[in-house]
Amino acid sequence: MFGAAHAQQTQMIQVGDHALETVQGGEGEYTVVFEAGFGSDYKVWGKVASEIAVANKVLLYSRAGCGNSGKSANPQTLEQAVQDLSMLLEKANINTPLILVGHSYGAFIIRQYAALNKDKVKGMVFVDPAHERLMQELKKVDYAKAMNDVALQRSFMPERFKEENELINQLFEKAALPDAGLLPEVPVAVLTSVQQHAKPELFLHEPQGVEVWRRLHNEFFAQFANGAHILTSRSGHNIHKEEPELVVNAIQQVIQSATKERQRQAYQAKVTELQSKLHTAAAYVKKGQQQKAEELVFEALAATGFDEKTINAIGYQQLGNATDMPVAVLIFKYNAIQYASSANAYDSYGEALMSHGKLKSAKAQFEKAIALATLNKDTATLKSSENNLAKLKQQHSAKK
């Protein structure tokens, strides 16, 4: 399925009264879950999944009644499809964050699942997704042609999919999906086919129909704050088959954005926790418990894992507030101890001490900074430290 390096066997996983044909492969921080379009099995994703599985965990499956998956005794409604997906992920022991990829009708399924499982989903890719208001909008343009599309679809529908197809048509008639709540605020990609058909059989494929399709996709994409909308005229509805590289690139872009967002959230959580500890340390200083304050600040900074530059920036933020100055001095002291070979750490510590009125101690830090900067040919820090030392001497003279 994924080539020699990533070959995987299909397995049948029981969900309720039926089993779903499933394939898993790859390793990575996320699990990319592929949801096929109506009537399609997992194999339609072959070209895309083989690329994604190189650096990510993937899960593909055939929905009930598709491929070798069993048929449920329950009507195959959208709600049932989402329930099957939920059970499948649980039975397959998928515990990593999810990137959901859905084609056509599969977009309805990943939308509903994501709305119900916001904490689990970290990104979504919609491949020429179905839109619930499609028939409503086509009817506004040309009612007779829109109804003819429905009749044609019914005429070529295989018998085994007719019942499910009518349930989906009911969604289009209502022009709305079941209310599952808002989608999560995650990175997304929407891929839209705007291919012109030489001899369109369906009204949907005529220029007016394509324009409706494009407009609905534009409106759908507009709800997201982080993502990309990719249009292609080279592929028809099955972009993942005709231009798999577009889908691969879109998934990789969403994964990269999701990773950056998770890193940002993790950083912000650390900063929030650190600020709480620094606030406590400030209270210790006011009570005259200087040693206790220093121990707390040092412990809190070490726990963040932040580098010298980040800690320095936090120190200067604290230094800007007179009430937080004693804690700022402790932050810079930590940096000077932790990064004892850094001229900049001593220079910044000296600035904090000078701001706090501890001129003698500040002078010692500037002299250390000058010595290190000279040794390391760090001209920028050398100039800063020399200037700071000159300022300190002026302050000292002014006090005499």
From TrEMBL:
Key word Ribonucleoprotein present: no
GO molecular-function terms, A-Z: hydrolase activity
A GO CC annotation given for this chain: membrane
Residues annotated as domain AB hydrolase-1: 31-141
TPR repeat residue numbers: 343-376
UniProt keyword Hydrolase, yes or no: yes
Superkingdom as given in the UniProt entry: Bacteria
PROSITE patterns listed in its UniProt record: TPR
Keywords from the UniProt entry: Hydrolase, TPR repeat
Name of the protein described by the UniProt record: Alpha/beta hydrolase
